[in-house]
Write a sequence for this structure.
């Protein structure tokens, strides 16, 4: 009989997760975004990352780490392991001991998670103590090779067992533990195996320097921030080794049938561009060249773009050729573009970002790899979707997508004719550029029409509530949620250098997964594959079923969804486990398409709620979403401002498309879910959004109103005001002039303006302005036809010289009048005075 490890511990840890269905709607709302990104050590989120009560103090003085171990054993085989013991203290250590322990057979993958946090005393089968004979100075390590026989540590039956190695001090105090599971190979004669299918994700950070814009024909010159991607593509690099693992695993037909290559279209497109040559630089050349006087350009050499030629073009082509050959004969499915977080993208409220995230992928893979991929299928990197997002995932209905024929440009152009347009005139109060707006759009703004063919979204179990026992439910009209085992995905997510915390897993068993070595976590994940197969077995009712197995006819199928950031070593262990369960009949091969298909006669209910029932510290913060939404709205405004010119091959959507991709890359899930990598992932998001904003500000400055001066003095109210409108972009722009002024002010401006590419026009306008002391202050800016401000405002003051002249005339007339009065007075006095030579007049007494 198999019983769960530490039943009391499991009950305690899972009490919070056992929520009645009646409370499901409230439970689904627990994953909430923070106002700003918070470091994992911040008290507001620290407990969401790591349960402080789990394995406290381990590894502070010394560590024991697994170097090698099998994930599966045959019956009665000895367990051979290599351990590395390291002194992590500041003092020498000696007299250390290592003791192997085993717990009871694990009944489920959820119990496997519990075993990783259980008290060592729960591992009640104790093997022989092994002494560490070497005195270890601070920082020193020594390796132990152990062979543990069945007599020393029995592993009976076809089961999966938790294994622990306890490192103790000379006084017996526990210093550290190393934990993983070992499976015993085999399949009972009367067991009915479940179908098993696996995703094989392939993605990597694409560090294109932000601020790229489109050109035509072809792609703009590729500028990467580093050779990091080239190193992964080179022989022995992560991406190259992952393809080695995949090619080796799928050489077995059963594994090939049950494995689907999940490719990041952003990675595939970037590697394709790398093969044609690229540059490595910290920044890209100025997008908008400031205007120069003619004489300043005489004899001057052009500025050369900084950077060095990339060295990975040949490796990129070789890797792409291998992927193309494998994709031609295997199942392929597209991940979201740049493995972006679909919940975060939907929160920006931007339809075109969402469409680029989920609609373009299959077309990109088809164009570059020349093969069809699975369509109408979405693999969210977060493992769940929040309320409102399922409706937006309707854009993944590739049955009605026209990208293959006309790109996204055609759909975008048709959408532009549906909105209201505005002419030049007074600006609305509070009008500001999209980059300065403080409101966040609604998720509902990104919703799609109901799909013509159902879209299927893979999500973890427990993140969708519905009344049926099976894995299917309608998350939105035409959008079906298809669940996979949450505990299995959570264990798989812990592999690699930076293990991930899934936002849909129960908080209590969360801990710093790096307390166990990468090899221990990899072996543990491989054992989880065996355990998932074992725990899914069913037995015919006519046969006496073992006590540990439920009597059911159809075993629930299993989907393996490893983390997109896994490394080749972990992938090798997990795929070896898949190959083993297929070879031994512990599971039967199942294609991804079969897993997604609703069995005949199965009623699919509407979901009651969607979202993680647990806290998720990896969610993008409100500040990050606001920044992304500001930029996406400005990109939309800028795209709408541009004009398609038959003489220019570049389309207006194509010009701004790389800017949208910058935002998708900034919102990637990759690295975001790792406790040890989150700060770096958050910084990468911040830097990319900052670089993108710098580019958008440069583009905004390229479209400007340039007044001759800040003060206009006109000779009369009918005199025209002259201003220059400049366009430094490679396409013409259709724009309007909007203005702010005092009450009663009116500018008579052209209804619309068309400014040629890389050109300018002079605008003459008249103004009806109230007379104010010192002149009338106006603020003018260029706006999109939809009314959105696009340029920086130009502040001017208008004075009318006629009014000034009238004032001088009055003053002059007054001065003349005063002068005449003075002359008249003086003349009169002179006439009344005696001549200067007359004798003085004497008065009589």
């Amino acid at each position: 009989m198999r019983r769960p490890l530490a039943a009391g511990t499991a009950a305690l840890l899972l009490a919070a997760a056992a929520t009645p269905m009646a409370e499901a709607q409230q439970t689904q709302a627990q994953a909430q975004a923070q106002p700003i990104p918070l470091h994992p050590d911040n008290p507001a989120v620290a407990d969401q990352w790591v349960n402080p009560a789990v394995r406290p103090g381990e590894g502070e003085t010394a560590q024991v780490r697994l170097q090698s171990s099998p994930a599966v054993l045959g019956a009665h085989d000895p367990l051979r392991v290599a351990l590395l013991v390291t002194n992590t203290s500041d003092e020498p250590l000696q007299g250390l001991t290592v003791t192997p322990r085993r717990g009871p057979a694990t009944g489920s993958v959820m119990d496997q998670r519990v075993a990783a946090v259980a008290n060592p005393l729960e591992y009640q089968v104790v093997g022989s103590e092994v002494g560490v004979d070497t005195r270890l100075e601070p920082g020193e390590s020594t390796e132990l090779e152990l062979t543990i026989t069945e007599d020393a540590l029995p592993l009976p039956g076809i089961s999966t067992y938790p294994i622990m190695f306890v490192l103790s001090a000379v006084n017996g105090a526990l210093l550290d533990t190393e934990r993983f599971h070992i499976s015993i190979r085999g399949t009972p004669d009367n067991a009915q195996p479940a179908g098993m299918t696996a995703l094989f994700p392939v993605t990597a950070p694409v560090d294109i320097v932000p601020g790229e814009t489109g050109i035509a024909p072809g792609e703009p010159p590729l500028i990467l921030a580093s050779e990091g991607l080239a190193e992964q593509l080179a022989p022995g690099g992560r991406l190259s080794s992952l393809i080695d693992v995949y090619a080796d695993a799928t050489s077995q037909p059963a594994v090939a049938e049950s494995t689907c290559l999940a490719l990041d279209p952003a990675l595939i497109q970037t590697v394709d561009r790398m093969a044609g040559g690229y540059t490595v630089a910290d920044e890209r050349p100025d997008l908008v060249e400031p205007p120069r006087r003619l004489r300043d350009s005489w004899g001057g050499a052009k500025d050369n773009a900084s950077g060095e030629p990339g060295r990975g073009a040949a490796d990129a082509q070789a890797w792409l050729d291998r992927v193309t050959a494998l994709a031609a004969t295997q199942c392929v499915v597209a991940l979201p573009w740049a493995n972006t977080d679909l919940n975060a993208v939907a929160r920006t409220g931007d339809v075109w970002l969402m469409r680029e995230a989920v609609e373009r992928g299959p077309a990109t893979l088809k164009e570059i790899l020349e093969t069809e991929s699975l369509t109408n299928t979405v693999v969210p990197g977060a493992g769940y979707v929040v309320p409102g997002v399922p409706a937006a995932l309707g854009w993944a209905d590739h049955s009605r997508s026209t990208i293959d024929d006309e790109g996204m440009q055609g759909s975008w152009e048709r959408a532009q004719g549906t909105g209201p347009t505005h002419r030049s005139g007074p600006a609305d109060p509070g009008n500001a550029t999209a980059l300065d707006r403080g409101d966040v759009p609604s998720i509902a703004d990104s919703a799609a029409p109901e799909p013509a063919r159902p879209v299927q979204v893979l999500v973890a179990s427990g993140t969708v509530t519905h009344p049926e026992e099976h894995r299917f439910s309608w998350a939105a009209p035409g959008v079906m949620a298809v669940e996979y085992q949450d505990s299995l995905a959570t264990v798989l997510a812990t592999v690699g250098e930076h293990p991930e915390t899934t936002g849909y897993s129960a908080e209590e068993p969360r801990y710093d997964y790096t307390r166990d070595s990468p090899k221990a976590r990899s072996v543990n994940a491989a054992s989880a594959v065996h355990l998932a197969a074992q725990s899914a077995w069913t037995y015919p009712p006519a046969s006496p079923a073992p006590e540990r197995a439920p009597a059911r006819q159809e075993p629930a199928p299993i989907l393996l969804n490893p983390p997109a950031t896994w490394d080749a070593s972990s992938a090798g262990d997990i795929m070896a486990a898949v190959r083993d369960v297929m070879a031994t009949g512990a599971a039967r091969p199942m294609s991804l398409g079969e897993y997604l298909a609703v069995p005949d006669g199965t009623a699919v209910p509407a979901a009651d709620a969607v979202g993680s029932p647990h806290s998720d510290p990896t969610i993008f913060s409100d500040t990050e979403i606001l920044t992304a939404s500001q930029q996406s709205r400005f990109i939309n405004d800028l795209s709408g401002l541009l004009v398609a010119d038959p003489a220019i091959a570049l389309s207006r959507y194509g010009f701004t498309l790389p800017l949208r991709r910058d935002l998708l890359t900034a919102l990637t899930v990759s690295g975001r879910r790792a406790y040890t990598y989150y700060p770096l992932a958050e910084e990468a998001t911040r830097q990319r959004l900052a670089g993108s904003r710098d580019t958008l500000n440069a583009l905004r400055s390229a479209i400007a109103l340039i007044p001759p001066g800040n003060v206009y003095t006109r000779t009369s109210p009918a005199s025209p005001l002259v201003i220059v409108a400049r366009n430094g972009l490679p396409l013409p722009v259709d724009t309007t002039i909007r203005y702010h002024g005092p009450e009663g002010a009116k500018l008579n401006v052209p209804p619309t303006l068309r400014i040629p590419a890389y050109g300018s026009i002079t605008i003459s306008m008249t103004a009806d302005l109230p007379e104010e002391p010192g002149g009338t202050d106006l603020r003018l800016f260029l706006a999109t036809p939809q009314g959105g401000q696009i340029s920086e405002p130009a502040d001017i003051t208008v004075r009318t010289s006629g009014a000034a002249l009238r004032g001088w005339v009055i003053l002059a007339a007054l001065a003349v009048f005063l002068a005449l009065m003075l002359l008249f007075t003086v003349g009169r006095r002179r006439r009344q005075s005696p001549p200067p030579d007359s004798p003085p007049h004497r008065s009589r007494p």
About this structure: Residues 78 and 310 are 50 Å apart (CA to CA). The chain has a mean pLDDT of 87. The longest helix spans residues 801-832. The two ends are 157 Å apart (CA to CA).
